Predict the structure of MarR family transcriptional regulator.
Amino acid sequence: MSYAGLVRPVIDRVHMSVRAAALPRLRPLYDRWGREPGFETSLYAGLLARPMSASAFAAASVYNRKPIAPEIADTDADGNRTLTPLGREVALAVQETIGAAAEELWSIDIPPGRPSPDRLCELAGRLLEAGADTGGPAFGAMAPPHEPEGAGAALVLTSRLSALRHHRGDAHRAAWAAEGLSVDEARNLTGGPLWERIEADTNRRDEPVYAVLSASERWEFAAGLGALPDGLRS
């Protein structure tokens, strides 16, 4: 198995466990504004950093067609999205809430010898820099993510991992498109030779981003993420 294929479920576990921990905190936020959560809850760190082009939004939302309300982001004639003042307030609050959930989740002692969240932030930052040469449209819109001045490691790491997941997302879209599949066909594919071929091609396209790390740093990154508490295990 390639390193990209091995580390993917580790990154996904960290991402999804933090999202699950943050969900009960996000609902009251949106109730305060009298709004329903939109796709900005996934794209906040990219939207806070720069306008998002129509092609980038289409790529990032290909599996999740949840919209972003016009009160949250203005859409120009070319389909490019820019946060409104309210949208920026919402996105900043979402980022802060997710960071706070991660900080609480990871407050359990990390096993001795495993890298700290600060070290994982450093490694993830180098991966995002390297991805500028290999990432597709969604990754380009999400990296580097917005990081408030003085932000803690939990907020920074969650934002960077979210962006890093889009590097693989772009690779996966390119892999199934190369096979002539539609998004619905790709979503419904669960096994078999074609699925295996697409997964292998996805790993091949995603793998170059990790070349910036040495072999020992790659294992340090995977082991460090794997050691982060996820709230699911005793």
